[in-house]
Amino acid sequence: MKINALSDRNIDLLMLLDQKKEISSRSQQLYGGLGFYAAKRFLVGMDLVEDSYTNEEREKIIKLTERGKKLVEQIKKVEEILK
After folding, report:
1. Is the model's pTM score more than 0.85?
2. Is pLDDT at 1 greater than 70 in this prediction?
3. Which residues of 5-38 are buried (b: 16+ CB within 10 A; e: fewer)?
4. 17 contacts 64 by C-beta, under 8 angstroms
5. What ranges do the domains of the chain cover?
6. Cα distances (Å, whole numbers) of residue 15 to 56, 57, 63
7. Are 49 and 40 in contact (CB under 8 A)?
8. What HEC string does the chain produce?
9. What is the rounded distance in angstroms from the CA atom of residue 15 to the CA atom of residue 44?
10. Which residues pair with 39 in a beta bridge?
11. Which of 12, 29, 37, 76 has the lowest CB atom count within 10 Å?
């Protein structure tokens, strides 16, 4: 895995998922239009997020995978060091 393949907004999306536990395209403000779906596809391909379920409005809800949770914990540690 190339670490530089993760953009700042990808990392922000992972951190948002850690905070909210699950999100849909409408419940986040980081990406507009198709950008969310491109980021989701990228993060699913890296096994960092997964589809959890489809809500009553037929939106796919995503959540962190175990691998994604581990990465978020490492990012938090790096952020703490950089303070």
Report:
1. yes
2. no
3. ebeeebeebbeebbeeeebbbeebeebeeeebee
4. yes
5. 3-81
6. 25, 24, 11
7. yes
8. CCHHHCCHHHHHHHHHHHHHCCECCCCCCCCCCCHHHHHHHHHHHCCCEEEEEECCCCCEEEEECHHHHHHHHHHHHHHHHCC
9. 15
10. none
11. 29
3-81, what's its fold?
Answer: Arc Repressor Mutant, subunit A (1.10.10)
Phi, psi of 66 (to 5 degrees): -60, -40
The one-letter code for the residue type at 62 is: I
What is the per-residue pLDDT across 10-49, written as a single tens digit (0 to 9) for each?
999 999 999 999 999 888 888 887 888 889 999 999 999 9
pLDDT 10s digits, 51-64 = 998 888 888 899 99
- Contact partners, residue 82, CB within 8 Å, separation at least 6: none
The tokens for 19 are 């905070």
